[in-house]
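Limitations

Structures in this collection are predictions, not experimental determinations, and the ligand pose is part of the prediction. Treat each record accordingly. The example that follows, with flavin mononucleotide as the small molecule, is included so readers can see exactly what is and is not provided: the inputs are given verbatim, and the output is the predicted complex.
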Amino acid sequence: MLKMNVKECISNKRSVRAYTEQEISDEVINELINLGTKASTGSNHQPWGFVVIKNKDEIQALSEETKTYLLKNLEQYPYLQQYKSWLTNPKFSVFNHANCLIIVYGDTSSHWYVYDCTLAAGNIMLSAHDMGLGTCWIGFAEHVCNAPEFKEKYNVPENFELVCPMSIGYMKTKMYPPVRKEPNIFWCR
Ligand SMILES: Cc1cc2nc3c(=O)[nH]c(=O)nc-3n(C[C@H](O)[C@H](O)[C@H](O)COP(=O)(O)O)c2cc1C
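Predicted complex:
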């Protein structure tokens, strides 16, 4: 496979919501997480922790739990109300039927943990794209992946907070590059 350069990788990476059944090896997962940890961090604290879920039934159960929770509490999440019809659709998977999740947590004792872990998540997403894998940040899962029961199950220490729930898998279809609005650039008068 021809290697992409960084600009190509950034310019073409999309949020992917359709995956093949192909499993991602532990070797690939470890490589992606290692690339994630190359991100810069405030005071070099490297305040991250990762949960990897590769069990499709577990992911499906987590999706159902997320849908049930959000539908019950939708008034608390005005920015998600536009997705009510998705959440009520029995076929809708919050994780887009991915067979793998990489969930990034940050150590709250480090002031910059949200920025640091977001940079790590960005590295993972771009590296995944470079390796022919698709990813998607799953904001829907913000509550369930940060719930005490979930963190206890996956041995996430109490002082770690969720930053990025991410679905990942081999892409089913090729996607067009993203189209963006003109950026606001605040030049000096
Ligand atoms: C913080 C954040 C939360 C997101 N949450 C979801 C989500 O819950 N489900 C989903 O399908 N996409 C989610 N996305 C993906 C966005 O919808 C996507 O980035 C946007 O539509 C632009 O598309 P592109 O990434 O393919 O260019 C999220 C992205 C970000 C950065």
